[in-house]
Amino acid sequence: MAIEVRDVNKSFGTTPVLRDVSIDVASGSLTALLGPSGGGKSTLLRVIAGLEHPDTGTVLISGVDATRLSPQRRNVGFVFQHYAAFKHMTVYRNVAFGLEIRKRPKAEIRKRVMELLELVHLEQMADRYPSQLSGGQRQRMALARALAVEPEVLLLDEPFGALDAQVRKELRTWLRRLHDEVHVTTVFVTHDQEEAIEVADTIVVLADGAVEQVGSPADVYDNPANPFVMRFLGPVTEIGGNLVRPHDIEITADPRPGSSEATVARVVRLGFEVRVELQIGDRDAWVQVTRGVAEQLALNPGDTVNVRPNPGSRSLALTGA
Amino acid sequence: MAKYGLRTIAVAYLLFLLVLPVGLIVWRTFGDGLAPFVEALTSPSALHAFRVTLEVSLWAVVANTVFGVGAALLLVRHEFPGKRLLSAFIDLPMAVSPVVVGLALILLYGRFSPVGGQLESWGIQIIFSTPGMVLATVFVALPLVVRAVVPVLEELGDEQEQAAHTLGASRFQTFLRITLPGIRSALAYGVVLCLARSLGEYGAVAVVSGRLVDQTQTLTLFVEERFQNFDQPAAFAAATALALLAVVTLLLTRLLRPKD
């Protein structure tokens, strides 16, 4: 294990932010800490980096107890949401910083920095200052800077949170590819489930300072441990006291075993998919179908249809709902 | 019309308050050419006063720079009980009359106080000597560096410092390589302000120095003493020199003032 977090508790004043958190991060993995804001995921990342101290519990990095180690001795790379670029230094000096602190020979620093700048496609920008770069470029520079010291783990705190949607998507794909090239154990924090599913190979869902579920993206999406995780990982709707993914619902004209009757309230065409809003008894629900299915059924508001969860799909019983 | 009226009033106000008095001093100083000016300023007493002023000011600036940066870091980067009190104490010298500061220092460090007496028995004289004058100057110029640095430090944030830590930099390395360059211009601004205040200080220094001619006489004290002794050329020459110093520091602050 590259990182082992054991029974970590942390409060800010009287507010608990982390409650008995234990996670394992495998060497070479790309793990997402996913959860709503205020769920404690950034704090957990900062505890791993040594930027926050846990009230109780331990943090092991590569088998070594790092709980009492200062950030400078942990050999972690940390990337901040707002880049934390050293404004008075050129891109080159930013990336070289960790190596200069380690007093490596000049020639070695030069070689390593240029390699890294090539890796993040900033080799043309070496002499620029951070203020002359775009947000995406700054974040890539920050990444190169963190990688320069060959950290045992790379920690990214909402790395794409401050970027616009287009750049964010590009950088996501790029981060995935970079990880496949560099293989450094990476943990990143995000509140965007799509980002977590697309980039990570393991997802840790955190809410209210506690771990809700750990698993592969497919695992947490298809087999959510509880209604919270199911809701957070993707769209859900309620049918017959069960939480179901709207694309896992069968909609037919005639009743079938286990189906319930519903009234079509509205049909919304969103390109290739169609969103059918239904009334089941006095409850609202919605179903996502393809355009073909919708046209075949010729759905109109006021029609009566029958719906049931797809056989084989996963649904969660809502207790006390 | 109202526009011109206001302008006339503003100009007249500044004329009688600032331009005429300073202009007169310069005119009187150079009224008989440059020679008397140079002669007055190169007299042994004047030269000595220059030296004392520079010595006291430099020590005061060094002390206030070190304390100012330290206090600013403490106020911005740390949480501790009594923080607001410390912040209020730092502003105190702005409110207290320099003469009171001088008297207070004499009360504490004078020969007949327990502290002053003890120091005297170790051969350290504070009052009527350079250390006392430095103390008084440090006191009156205390808030200038702190107040110049605090807002910039706040705006800088601590993320760059945290990034430096994770990259392996110690606290001291982080301060030298990240924090100090970040506050550089604000610090320079504060230091120049502090220097200007120190060069021009009169009240507190007058009280603690004992105004010993050729011993503890600073340039401001020299002006006053020459004037009282009807040596107007020397008084005016020294006053002009002080004014020129002020203009230079003013220009420096203009040059160094943090953007925005």
TrEMBL record, chain A:
Residues 3-233 form the ABC transporter domain. It comes from the Bacteria. Keywords: ATP-binding, Nucleotide-binding, Sulfate transport, Translocase, Transport. CDD domains: ABC_CysA_sulfate_importer. GO terms for molecular function: ATP binding. Gene3D superfamilies: Nucleic acid-binding proteins (2.40.50.140), P-loop containing nucleotide triphosphate hydrolases (3.40.50.300). SUPFAM superfamilies: MOP-like (SSF50331), P-loop containing nucleoside triphosphate hydrolases (SSF52540). PANTHER family: SPERMIDINE/PUTRESCINE IMPORT ATP-BINDING PROTEIN POTA, SPERMIDINE_PUTRESCINE IMPORT ATP-BINDING PROTEIN POTA. NCBIfam families: 3a0106s01. This is Sulfate ABC transporter ATP-binding protein. It comes from Microtetraspora glauca.
